[in-house]
Design brief:
This protein is mainly β. 14% of the residues lie in helices and 52% in strands. It is globular.
Length: 132
């Protein structure tokens, strides 16, 4: 999408109770603007809110060439955790254009009102699902 590429792999445990998801997001190039909703809520946001309220996610992110508007960098990496109405991205690191670096942490707490209105993100039929 918009000249972005990503490979997301992972697994889900405890599908029938409190889902525990483990993922790895590896992208040679990715426009971070695709993750930010415009005008309306995004499907991604609904899914993250549902998982924050009903399950757990632990994963890692690696984007070789991240872009966002006029920002471009190299080797963006982070650890992603979602649980208990909280989304955290820890150990964020990236090399920025001219010999600079970016480091940080992001925390996002979802209010209960937003969690009550979101529906489960998976609808329709899922074929060839493997249980672990």
């Amino acid at each position: 999408i918009n000249d972005s590429e990503a490979v997301v792999t992972g697994f889900v445990k405890q599908w029938n109770s409190i889902p525990q998801v483990s993922v790895m997001w590896n992208a040679p190039k990715f426009d971070l603007d695709l993750l930010i909703p415009k005008d309306e809520r995004s499907v991604l946001r609904d899914g993250v809110e549902w998982l924050a309220n009903h399950g757990k996610l632990a994963g890692s992110v690696l984007i070789e060439r991240p872009r966002y508007k006029t920002f471009s960098g190299q080797k963006l990496s982070a650890e992603l955790n979602i649980h208990d109405n909280l989304v955290t991205m820890d150990k964020i690191q990236a090399m920025v254009e001219e010999d600079g670096s970016l480091k940080g942490r992001v925390l996002s707490i979802f209010p209960q009102e937003s969690l009550q209105r979101c529906a489960p993100p998976l609808r329709g039929r899922i074929s060839r699902l493997k249980y672990f």
